[in-house]
Amino acid sequence: MKTIIKSIITTLALTAPISTGAQGVLLDAGTGKKAHILTSADTVRMGYNPDFKSIAVAGNSDYTVAGSADWFTCRKESNGNLTLFSSYNSSATTPRTGQVTLTTADGSLTRTLIVEQAANTAAFTVPSDIKHEIQSATASSEQGGEGIEKSYDNNPSTIYHSAWSGTTMPVTLTYTIKEPSHVDYALYTTRPSGSNGNFGEVRVLYTTIDNSLDFKELGVFDLGQRSGTHRIDFGKNGIDNVKRIKFEVLSAASDGSGKNFASCAEMGFYSNNNTFASELAKYFNDALCTQLKPEVDEAAAAGISEPYVRQLVTNMLSSDYSKKYRVGEFEPYRTVESLSRELMTSNYNRYENPTGIYFTKDMPIVLFVEGITEVAPSLIIKSFGPSQYDGDNQPESSYPLKNGVNLIMPTNRGNGYISYYSDNFASLPKVKIHFAMADENGYFDLQRGDTNEDWQNLLANAKSDIIDIRSQRMQVAAPLVSLQRVCPRKGMELAQLYDNVILREWEIMGLAKYGREPKNRQFARCVTSGMYADGVGAAAAFGSFDQWTNPDDLGFWGLGHELGHVNQVRPGFKWDGMGETTNNVYAAWVEHTLGNGYHRLEDENSGIGEYRGWRGGRFQAYLEEGVRKGITWQLQDGPDYHGSTPNNVTVKDEDANGNQGQNVQTTKRNYDHFLKVVPLYQLELFCLNDGAAQAPDAYGKMLEGIRNNANTNLTNGQFQLQFMKTFCDSTQINFIPFFEKAGMLNPVKAYIEDYSPGWLIITEEMVKELKDYIGSKNYAPIPESLNYINAYNWQVFRDKGTIDENTPVNAGCTSEGNAIKVDNEVWKNAVGYETYDADNNLLRISMFGLGDAQKSSRYTKVLWPASEGAAYIMAVGYNGQRVKCYQK
């Protein structure tokens, strides 16, 4: 390559005319004068093609000249001026810079000029496919101001929409091309926001100039009601002389009102531009344009007249041309909609197939594609960057792909993803793509075998502000600055933790056990504000993302909580009141199995009343409000929303079967969501920690039972009872006493606050029916004290340890304010403590470890309400054993 560069520069130098307009000037060079040099420019700018520029030089001394790069040469002219000659710049992404140094003859002074050569913009010259002008169009239904003409006005921000009042399917759209033309494909672009009216199944018909009234069917295509730009091919070789095209929209996305709609931002009809492909075929042996023909060398490249082809050939001749991410294979995945229906969850990853390519807005890139069959993938360009770059909207654009040449003009910056989804994914081939001369950003793939050395190189050479990380089960779009700050060297460890989080959540769901573990991954990304989950996946603001990128202190609860929202099985395990509860079943299990020993429910300083601010106070509230006082689950007062004033609301009355009556006035308020999760978490500790050998898959069995017998028309009360029934049936354990003590089987009629509030109605008859049913099964009993299990005593339930009844009363017990501090090592195998008065009335229940140091199980501060006549404390065993451990 250097040989041809020198040859080009030499040719220019010999043939370039010497400038006559700017003459060198030798200023007064008298004795004692300081040497100086002046130039007509400090910066010399060259085009990407071979170029030359003349610089006028003035001074009082002769000079020598030296250049800093091999892509340009300098020639000192006889008149003292300087001429620079540059070679061809084949880089599409990087301008070249160098320096020219002028030094006086005596060496006392130097002057430096900057030489800049533009990046190669030949991609702007690549001919696009031919778009045919639409003469007119009609629609069977349209809304005033959103007529069919909006679908071909070349403005994707305006849309055609059928009547807002609804219409009858199919909606028919008919387009007439101005001149009969060969059509290879149509592009249908959905509305820029929302999904109402996005085409699902659509029948496409056409006429030719030979018979403009006889419509022939092209086929029925399922566009999946998905947003983006969809490509519809007119056969393998296109169709000649097309005059009219008709779309019969058979189904489309709706707003849930039962009305039918159709919408379209842009519709276009195209012919392939085959001349460019023919030019490429002269020099390349393959469709991806990665293998040059044997006879193509540097001299041949220099003689190519088509600018982009010359640029590409020149790059392919260079040993520096990286194909690590520019050339890749991309797999098909199951549609997220189909998967969510099977799993009864929210959506999994919409951004499978990260490309490792970074796209710049308005900078064209050519993609060479091979292997597309019946399902055409799309390129998604998405910015997950902060607002200072893109505003708060984090823009995204979609580009349908075809075999052969694809010219992409990005409308936003961002990382690239190949969207390749189909319910027939198992039978589809991989698609090969060459992102010619594109910016390689890279991504980290644990399954691929990437190492921490790869990780460090990735962070050091990133072009984007977002790094894509993926493992077998998880993909994360993470901020580069966060990774550089808290995870500069441990990419493998971080990716493995991500995978383990999903592994633990899927363990709860029973996906592996029942053959439902998908190829699709779950997804998390950075957003401009908040921490939440939505139809895209889990999200955390840039300012919070360090919690999700630090492998030495990962925020397991927060990440597990948001991913748990995605995995909530709905509605069977997400009835009203469970919106911020059953997702924490996942969060608690992730924290318990993967964390550093800290448990939010047991270790957080919280609580109400006499135990306000104590370690384990939230868990304690469950024992006091639910187990001791018998308050109904979902209505138990905890630290969050403690003492909130209920709001008066007017709603439709409802009976236990969901039949609505007249308007009634009732109240609603929020209750502590974390407190509600405690009994559900206790079931995990008992069943999944091998506490009961017959129930290690308890939650998976329960959720599989819900998936297999999904009845979405149940009331909230019926869903709650279904959960308890299914849990008992799937484990063949009688948990009814546990549910009763937790307050989950109390008859209740209350209007429950949630993202969508609703009535919770459980009648005495419903309770009796469930208890009689489970009682008839003769399922295995549970330990009597199961409501006392926590992260620090679950092993006692597993090992069936008992309390030594010969331990002296008051041993290991000391008075401490309104509590008695009990040494748990003295009272080994106690799982909790109960405080009684002299008449044997239960005054308080104290959580094992209450008030101790975090992550410790040494002591318990047992509540001692002296003003209520506290007289003695009983240490409680897993099986209901009670031994007096303290007496006043």
Question: How many structural units, i.e. domains?
Answer: 6
Query: What CATH architecture of the largest domain would you give?
Result: Sandwich
The total beta strand count reads 49
Overall shape: it is globular
Low-pLDDT residue intervals, each spanning 5 or more residues: 1-23
CATH homologous superfamily annotation of the largest domain: Peptidase M60, enhancin-like domain 1
Number of helices: 19
Ends apart, CA distance between termini: 94 Å
Q: Please describe the biggest sheet, giving its number of strands, its sense, and whether it closes into a barrel.
A: 6 strands, mixed
Provide a brief overview of the structure.
By secondary structure, the chain is of the alpha+beta class.
How is this structure best described in words?
This protein has 888 residues and is of the alpha+beta class. The protein folds into six domains: 2-120, Immunoglobulins (Immunoglobulin-like), CATH 2.60.40; 130-272, Galactose-binding domain-like (Jelly Rolls); 276-317, no CATH class; 327-567, Jelly Rolls (Sandwich); 583-788, Peptidase M60, enhancin-like domain 3 (Neutral Protease, domain 2, Orthogonal Bundle), CATH 1.10.390.30; 802-887.
